[in-house]
Amino acid sequence: MCNPAPNPYAKGIYANGIIESYQSQGANVNIYPEVAGPITQILVAEGAHVRKGTPLVTIDDTVQRATVDQQRAQADASLALLEELRAEPRPESLDIARAQVVNATATLKNARDSVAKLEQAHALEPRAVSQDALDTARNAVAVADTNLKVVERQYDLTQAGAWSYDVTNQERQHEALAKAAAASTALLQKYTIRAPIDGIVLSMEAAVGGYVSPQGSYGTYTEGFGPVLVMGTGQDCLEVRAYVDEILVHELPAPAKMTGRMFIPGTTTNVPLTFVRVQPYVSPKIELSDQRQERVDVRVLPVIFRFDPPPNVAVYPGQLVDVYIGEQ
User: Within this chain, do residues 125 and 39 fall inside the same structural domain, yes or no?
Assistant: First the structure.
């Protein structure tokens, strides 16, 4: 950067500044994906004005889409089984159980008739029927009676339908599978990066086929990771974030009296600034360089001003400027 412009104030404070899109609070929006994968589409161009929710970039979702389809199928299958349990008893099953009761009743009657005839014959002539044959007939009655009781209970069980515990268990399984499918569907939506605000696309650091992750995208020139997109508000009104050295903070005018003037390096243009707010946090001066650590622990206080873009000089977010802060 060239040497700072002359101080326009009697007791003005110099600060490095960086131009940003105007925000009522915060700064430009750095957009990082929540999922990783290669980019399949870039749907907007840098400088495009978009509405909140507009698709900006899509990431390959092949695997996640298949996962969603699988989990939806599992949820549908569990729902079908739940509906089957709720629909019990089936009329066909009830008809079979009823027929089994009728058959067992007839079998018991036949066994009782047989033993009655044998007992009558035995009473008239004991030698006509052996004791072994009589015992066998009586055992057949006992077996037929037991079988009738079993099929009657089976009929009652079939008629009662599914056990309430089985229904409750299946309901919970279906609920769990449905929630898993809903979570996968929500994650699938993350493979499309959408505009979080109404604004303008300031920077697109990605290309179709390039790999991105929650760390962002790798910059060929910076050799580091950064946001995939940067968004800001429209450029009808811009702001400058002036970084005041901590040793000068005590000299700042009161907010109600604070004003400023911005000088654009390489030009003779200077622009009046309107005070917006102070970001009340002193931090290391790393915003104005690519170094993540400073050799000297210089700390600065951000002071934000807004301004109308000058008609004769083009200015852009990210541009470094000289700022003087004075008292009006």
Answer: no
What strand order describes the sheet that includes 49-50? 29-31, 229-232, 199-204, 49-50
11-28 pLDDT, tens per residue? 899 999 999 888 766 667
| pLDDT single digits (tens) 87-134 | 999 899 999 999 999 999 999 999 999 999 998 988 888 888 888 998
**Cβ 325 vs Cβ 8: under 8 Å:** no
* Cα gap 25→41, rounded to integer Å: 31
Same domain for 213 and 242, yes or no, is no
DSSP code string of 205-245: ---TT-EEETTEEE-TTT-SEE-SEEEE--TTSEEEEEEEE
Q: Note whether 326 and 260 are within 8 A (CB).
A: yes
Residue 226 and residue 238 share a domain: no
The model's pTM is 0.68
Do 104 and 151 contact (CB within 8 A), yes or no? yes
- Contact between 214 and 34 (Cβ < 8 Å): yes
